[in-house]
Every structure is written in structure tokens, then in C-alpha cells.
Specification:
The chain has two helices and no strands. The chain has about 90 residues and is mainly alpha-helical. The chain folds into two domains: about 55 residues; about 35 residues. The chain is rod-shaped.
């Protein structure tokens, strides 16, 4: 009685091929993840710079209000000191 092992050999070859493909895909995914991590770190750095440079923008409104108040007070002082008519800013 002869044992036929051809089926086993074919199975081993297919299993080895599947393992090689899976290992290749995992390596490719890991390299993509590394690239994404590097790009994400760069983006976080740029966002920190943007945040630092745009933080003063809301203060422009406050500065404008303060300057209008100063102009109004100067106009009031001019009227009190010189008796001139008040001008609107």
C-alpha cells in the first residue's frame, strides 16, 4: 500500500504562500502607519505654530473698542477744556 502525499505538499505550498502574502501586507501596513505617524507629528507642530500666531486676532476687537473709548474721552476732554463741539469718531 502506497501513501499519496501530494495533497499534503500542495497544502503546505499554499499555506506558505498565504503566510508570505500576509507578512508582506502587514509590513506594508506598518510602513504606512509609520508614515502617517510622522505626518501627524508634523501637522501637530504646524497647528501649534498657527495657534500661536492667530491667538492675538480676537484681541483686535478689544483693542478697537479701547481705542474708540480713548477717542471719545479725548473728545469729551476737548469739549471741557476748549469748549469745542464734540465730533464723532
Amino acid at each position: 500500500m502506497e501513501t499519496v502525499l501530494t495533497g499534503w505538499y500542495v497544502g503546505y505550498v499554499i499555506a506558505a504562500a498565504v503566510i508570505v502574502v500576509v507578512v508582506g501586507l502587514v509590513g506594508w501596513l506598518l510602513s504606512l502607519a509609520r508614515r502617517i505617524g510622522v505626518q501627524a507629528a508634523a501637522i501637530v507642530g504646524v497647528l501649534a505654530d498657527i495657534r500661536a500666531t492667530t491667538a492675538p486676532i480676537p484681541m483686535v476687537s478689544k483693542l478697537n473698542q479701547k481705542l474708540l473709548h480713548v477717542v471719545e474721552q479725548a473728545s469729551t476732554a476737548r469739549v471741557a477744556l476748549l469748549g469745542e463741539e464734540k465730533t464723532s469718531p
